[in-house]
């Protein structure tokens, strides 16, 4: 896992948008050489972008959710269909936000009785005509870039619910650093959903494998399965499978 000092560096980087080695050395009470070694190592791990005198955030390709809704993606549809095949009538499930999760909501059979819990208003809206599904929309502050609710209210609601399965779309999965997220609010919600679920199924494209983002969610050992593309890199899949995680290719 990421060392405590490096985690502090990531937090400052996320807050300020840039960090300087001189300032970090003073704030953290270590030498500039130590900070430079940390930054170099973190750059090699794709945690940040190393620049002269400091570092900048590593920009993952995570555009605003609303900008992507009109685009059809057959791969996301396949992942969603595979996820639906794992469902059993009467289950309670968490669905987080994101495109694949929206595809999942659309793919759920209308005649299947389920209790579906989500923090994403758009996912909930896709389930309006599922008359046999009880839909619980988690409250809280609307986090606009990803169109989902977050914060203390949403977290409290999650912790009062037990689920059979948590379905989570991912933006970054690394064999050693686990699942990470761009936003701290997203990471907190996903951690809570995982803790309250009997099983956790991650869904993500092959382009998300091997990436690391700013905020830790969970190590891979806490996940039960990954649904990803059949054209994913075999070496990466082998490293993931070594963490005792089932892989479903579609």
Automatic annotation (TrEMBL):
Instruction: Please give the InterPro entries that the UniProt record associates with this protein.
Output: Carb_Metab_HTH_regulators, DeoR-like_C, DeoR_HTH, NagB/RpiA_transferase-like, Tscrpt_reg_HTH_DeoR_CS, WH-like_DNA-bd_sf, WH_DNA-bd_sf
Name all HTH deoR-type domain ranges. 2-57
The entry's keywords: DNA-binding, Repressor, Transcription, Transcription regulation
Top-rank taxon of the source lineage equals: Bacteria
The record's annotation in Gene3D superfamilies points to:
3.40.50.1360, Winged helix-like DNA-binding domain superfamily/Winged helix DNA-binding domain (1.10.10.10)
The molecular function terms in GO held by this entry are: DNA binding; DNA-binding transcription factor activity
User: Which PANTHER family does the record match to this protein?
Assistant: GLYCEROL-3-PHOSPHATE REGULON REPRESSOR, HTH-TYPE TRANSCRIPTIONAL REGULATOR SRLR-RELATED
Put simply, this protein is called DeoR family transcriptional regulator
> What is the source species?
Thalassotalea marina
Task: Please spell out the taxonomic lineage of the organism that makes this protein.
Answer: Bacteria, Pseudomonadati, Pseudomonadota, Gammaproteobacteria, Alteromonadales
